[in-house]
Amino acid sequence: PVSVPPTALVAHPRQEREGERETMSKDDILERIKGLTGSCFRGKGKGYDAKISIKGTTYFLGNYALGADSGLAFDKCILPLLDTNFSRGLNFETIEDFEYLRAAEIEATGINVDFDTVLETMTIKVSAAVKKIRKSPTPGVAKVSKKKSNKKSKASKAGSTSS
Fold it and tell me: What angle do CA 89, 142, 74 make, to 5 degrees?
């Protein structure tokens, strides 16, 4: 039911070790949720914001009741951008890892949200963010190179007047 192709997912340093899934406690599950990239807990009853920051600009990917869902939103946003020199790990090595963590989070917290509804909203928000990211100039690169060239021209002017 998740549209992120498993073959596109890469290893992540926070992935579970072999056999660890069966032994994860409620605290382990919640710690794993806290460690998801792009997922920010807003407080009890307020859910998790999913965000991605690229070259100083933050893009909002939605608010989700479950941390696993906000982590997946980050992954779904970053996948189409991997060809644009954005190198950062994904939250989930495979779709099965996401499904396991989501089910464990539901069991640990008692919060259950229909995934089809979540995925529909996620797809809209992530698609909009990806479009904005692709349309935006590369602000970090443009500003840095412009500032450097201005400093060089000022330095050469200063050097030519002092000779």
Answer: 25
